What does this fold into?
Amino acid sequence: MQPRSRAECIERDRVDSLAAHREQFRLPEDVIYLDGNSLGALTRSAERQVAAVMQEQWGVDLIRSWSENGWLDYPSRLGDRIAPLIGASPGEVLVCDSTSIDLFKIVSAVALQRGKRRKLVTELGNFPTDLYVLRGLARLVPELDVVAVPREELSAAIDHETLLVVLTHVHYRTAEMYDLAAMTAHVHSVGARIVWDLSHSIGALPIDLGLSEGDFAVGCTYKYLNGGPGAPGFLYVRRDLQAALQPVLSGWLGDARPFDFLDDYLPAPGIDRHRCGTPPVLAYAALEGALNVFDGVDVESIRRKSIELSDLFIALVEDLPQAESLHLVSPRDPARRGSHLSFAHADAGAVMQRLIKRGVIGDFRAPDLLRFGLTPLYLRFVDVWDAVQILGEEIGRTFIDKNKLGARHEEGTHRQTGFHVGLVRTD
Ligand SMILES: Cc1ncc(COP(=O)(O)O)c(C=O)c1O
It folds into this structure.
């Protein structure tokens, strides 16, 4: 039963099995943070770990830390720690570089062994980096053909000429989620391979790349994993594909014998060959600390609470007197949705600015989306209640102002998503 009052939300928080995790985060008193899908909140354990690495390791052990404090192993050590969150095994995940660079590393390595297949298929409206990286590579390797199509045309575009498909599991704008296993199976049925961008999935919902035989994946660690601003990305290569995948960005730390400083490159065995250069140790320390909050937490329980928070958010928004000016762009069915919600509103930019001034931090995505991330480890049901009341007040202000100016309602189709929406327009 969904809470229907502020008191019921407080009661729901009291019996929430994840409620105690909030204490592990450092959150300002006067903020309701609904942007953890973009930059996760600071964990106390990240703070402690960065301080320890700086003071006790860098400050005392100095250069000896590369081996004695395991600095050199950070990419694979943290890779093994996040592997269970995506259904991978130890030795299949590496934390390194940024998501954009990791994507280039995977796609370029696959392109090296392309045979006769030339098509790189992706979705129009995918996160820009995913499109740009593919097109950039196609400039370097003109035999490659980037085919970017709307979601409805993807199945047909994936054919026997397809080398690789690159898709984002949970869409950054709408939160619309692919059936990962079904799409992977479809791609395999034509003999192609797939890279999943899991930036908006990891840490928010269960993913099983092992079970669905996913080939490759990349993603961010600064969103639901709370790794910190600019935290390194991760890449996954299924074990049986590792030996044949030769890196193009063949940096010295991806060599099998980096400290022999040889002239000829020999890729390291396994996932380590996808390392490039020196790891940014302090960024790894923050992520290492942040990952402690996932110890002993079952991702299924995160997912359950994420759905409850999101469903409550939608129901409360739709109960607002001003509800007609807001239109849910994310799927209503939680099975087809990630852990954020987007609503179209004619004055979304100004509304979000006012929300942020009042401590309700979400984000605005042009031209007209209000986006709210629901992060179960530190968000309470009462936060959802309060945030929606404030949203109602701010929308009400826009609504009245527009009405004064002679606003009229107009039906239309949301430009980016194709969803049917009603827009408020001033004459
Ligand atoms: C879906 C998706 N892919 C890739 C990226 C790019 O990540 P980075 O800037 O760390 O390379 C982002 C960043 O927000 C993203 O949301």
In short: DSSP finds 13 helices and 15 strands in the chain.
